[in-house]
Amino acid sequence: MLGVCALERTELLRGWGRTQPVMANVVELDGTPPSSEIFVRPGTIARGMGRAYGDAAQIGGGRVVTQPDDVASSTLAEGVLSAGGGVSLDSILSAYVPKGWFVPVTPGTRYVSVGGAIAADIHGKNHHLEGTFSNHVESFELLTPTGAMRVDREGDPDLFWATAGGMGLTGVITRASFKMIPVESAYMKVETRRLDDLDSLMATMVGSDHKFRYSVAWIDCLARGRSMGRSVLTRGDHARLADLGGAMAGDPLHYQAKAVASAPPWLPGGMLNTASVRLFNEMWFRKAPRLREGEIQRIPTFFHPLDGVSGWNRIYGPRGFLQYQFVLPDGEEEALRRIMEEIASAQVPSFLAVLKRFGAANPGLLSFPRPGWTLALDIPVGSTRLFGLLERLDRQVLEASGRLYLAKDSRAKADTIAAMYPRLGELAAIKAKVDPDGLIKSDLSRRLGIL
Amino acid sequence: MFDALHTPDNVLVVGGSSEIGLEIAKQLARRGSSKFLLAGRSLEEMQRAARQISQVSERAAASVSVIHFDVLAEGATESLLAAAKAELETIDMAVIAVGALGNQASDEKDPAAAERILEVNFSKLAPAVLAIANQMATQGFGHIVVLSSVAGVRVRRSNFIYGAAKAGMDGFATALADAMIPSGVKVTVVRPGFVTTKMTAHLSPAPLSTTAAKVAAETLRAADRGKVTVWVPPLMAVVATVYRHLPRVVARRVPF
C-alpha cells in the first residue's frame, strides 16, 4: 500500500499556452499502486512535462498523476529502450546520445515525457519517412481503473492504437519500450535553403524531402501577396564520423543541452504585436542564406532551438497564447494557400510558423498525422478578431478533409473535433472496457465531449 | 470548461431576466458558449430571453434552460446549485445580475421595504454568490461576474438604500476576488453608470449613461483579461473617483 493520497497536493495547472488555469490535486506516482487508489471522481488524468498547449493534461477539481523523470531506471537492450512514463526525451538524449543512440522521433522540444509522446502520438521532422513516435513503440504498461496491464503492439492492437494518440484517456502509461536509432555522432549535417514564396517551397519539399531524414520549413505568416509563404527550409541527417573535423571528430558523441537564457518571470502582454513580429520575421528571413549545404550543427540547435530559452512561453504575457496546428491531405494545396492568405490578411502577429510534410498515417484512432501538409503557428491571445478568424479556419480545414492536433488544441468545439476524428466512437468503446465508470477524464475531454 | 480565449462552455445567469445579463449571455452565445441556465423570478421573461440567446448562436443552437429563483426565498440557493449541477455539469461562468432599485422616497418611510431592497441587492444575494464561489472552488476553476453599480461607490442622498446595498455587494465581491485566488476562481465586479434598461425606464438618464450591450461588451473584455473591476463607460472611473473624494458639503450639492 503506497498511500498516494497522503502525497497529494493542490496545484494551479495550465498548459504550455498558459491560457486555462485550474486547480487540481496532483499526485506523483511511485511504483504501481492499486488502481482504486489512483482513479477517483470527478476524474483522473496523467501529466508529463506539461507541454501540451491547452487543457489536455489537467482536470480542474480532479486528480492529475505525474511520474518521476527517472532515466536511471531505463534499460537499453538490442537497440530497444525501456523507460518509465515520466522520463523525458531530454534525459534520454543526455544519457544515450553519448553512447551512440538517438530517440526515434523528437518534436521541436526535448521536454516531452515518454508517456506524453505516446499519448499525443508526437511527430518530428522525420515524419515523412519514419512516422510518429508510436510507430517505434513495441509495448507499454498501462495503468487503468480495471488494473495495470502490459499492452503489446501485436498482441493487443485495439488498446495499443486507442492509447497511441489517445491523449491519456485510456490510462496512465507507466513504462514503454521503443526502438532507438544508432548515431555515429551528436551532430547534424544540415542544408539551409531560403525560399521566396509558397510555390517554390512546396515544390522543393515535394521534390527532395525524401533525400533527407529530417525536414522542416519556417514560414513568415505575415508576408502577403507574392511573398506569401516565404520561408527557410532546413533539412538534415545525423552527421557521420567522416563529416566531422577538428575537435568534433575527437569527441563525436559529446552532447550537452541546456538552456542558455531564461525569459523573465513576469512580462507584460502586448510585447509581441504585429510590428515587432514583422520586424523579427524580416530579420530572420534576411539572415538566412539562399543555400548553404553541409553545415554541421549540434543536436539542440537543429532540433530544439526554442529549448535554449527556458520559459519562452512567458514572452506572450499574462494572457498566454495558443498554437493552431492542422494537417491537410495531399491534393489540398489550394486550401492551404487560402488558409495562409486568410492568416496573412488577418495580420495575427505570429512568428514561428512551421510547415512540414507528413508521411503515412498509422492506425491510431486519434493519431493526428496523415499524408499531406501540416502548418503550426503560435498566436497570442488578445485580439477579439480571433473569435471569428479561428472558427473560419476550422471550417476551411474541415472542408479540405483536414484536422486539428489535439495536443495543441485549446479552443476547438466538440462538433468540429467530432467531424475531424470520425473514429472517436471506437475510442469510446475501447475506453469503456478499461474504464467502465468513466474515471479517466481531462479538461480537454470534457471540453470536447470525448467520453 | 473555458477555451483559450476565455469563452466558457456553461453559463449560469442569476437574475435571468435582467437585460444586462441577457446581453452578456447573447454575446457569449455568439462566441460559442453552448449551455445556459437562466435563474430568475419571471419564467415568462426568461423564456423570451432563452429564445433570443439560442437564436444568436452561430453554430448549433445553444441550449438554454430556465429555473425559478427568488433570492429571498428559503432554500433558493441550494435548489439553484442542484439545478446547475444537473444542467451544466460545471458552472464555468456565473453572471450575477440580480437587482432591485426600489423607490427611495417611499422606502425611506417603510423600513420593511428598505429591508427588502437591502436583501435583494446584498444581504441575501451575497451568501448566494458565496455558495456559487465555493462550488467553483470545488471544481477548481470558474469565473463570477457581479453587476455592481457606481451607486455603491459613494452612497448618495438620492438613493441611499439601493446605494448602500450596492456598496455592500461591491465590497463583498471585490474582496471575494482576492479570497478566491488560491482556489483558481476569478471574480469580476462591473460598475456601470446609468444604464438605460427597463429597471431605469422611469428615470431620466444621468450623464455618461450607457446601454446593456455596451456594459456586456466591456464586462466580457474585462473578464477575458481577468480584471477584478471594470467601469462602464471607462470614463466613469475618473468621474466616480473624483466624486468620491469631494468634500461632503460639495458632494451634497451635486445634482444627481
Described by the principal axes of the CA atoms, the overall outline of chain B is globular
- Average per-residue pLDDT of chain A, rounded, comes to 94
Strand order of the largest sheet of chain A: 16-12-14-13-19-20-18-21
How many helical stretches of chain A?
14
Helical fraction of chain A equals 25-40%
Question: What's the CATH architecture of chain B?
Answer: 3-Layer(aba) Sandwich
The count of DSSP E runs of length 2 or more, i.e. the number of strands of chain A, is 21
Uncertain segments of chain A of ≥5 residues (pLDDT<50)? none
Q: What gross morphology of chain A would you assign?
A: globular
> What share of residues are in beta strands of chain A?
25-35%
Strand order of the largest sheet of chain B: 3-2-1-4-5-6-7
Q: How does this model look, in words?
A:
The complex is a heterodimer of chains A (451) and B (256). By secondary structure, chain A is α+β, with helices and mostly antiparallel strands. Chain A has helices at 35-38, 89-96, 114-119, 127-130, 157-163, 198-208, 246-250, 274-287, 299-303, 333-346, 385-399, 414-420, 424-434, 443-447, and strands at 9-13, 22-28, 44-46, 63-66, 75-77, 80-84, 101-102, 137-144, 147-152, 172-179, 181-182, 187-195, 214-219, 231-238, 261-262, 291-298, 309-310, 321-329, 353-358, 372-380, 403-404. In chain A, β1 and β2 form a beta hairpin. The longest helix of chain A has 15 residues, at 385-399. The radius of gyration of chain A is 21 Å and the shape is globular. The model of chain A has no long low-confidence stretch (mean pLDDT 94). The model of chain B has no long low-confidence stretch (mean pLDDT 94). Chain B has one domain: Rossmann fold (3-Layer(aba) Sandwich). Chain B contains 10 helices and 7 strands. The radius of gyration of chain B is 18 Å and the shape is globular. The longest helix of chain B is centred in the middle third of the chain and has 21 residues, at 160-180. A 7-stranded parallel beta sheet of chain B has the order 3-2-1-4-5-6-7, sandwiched between helices. Chain B is an alpha/beta fold.
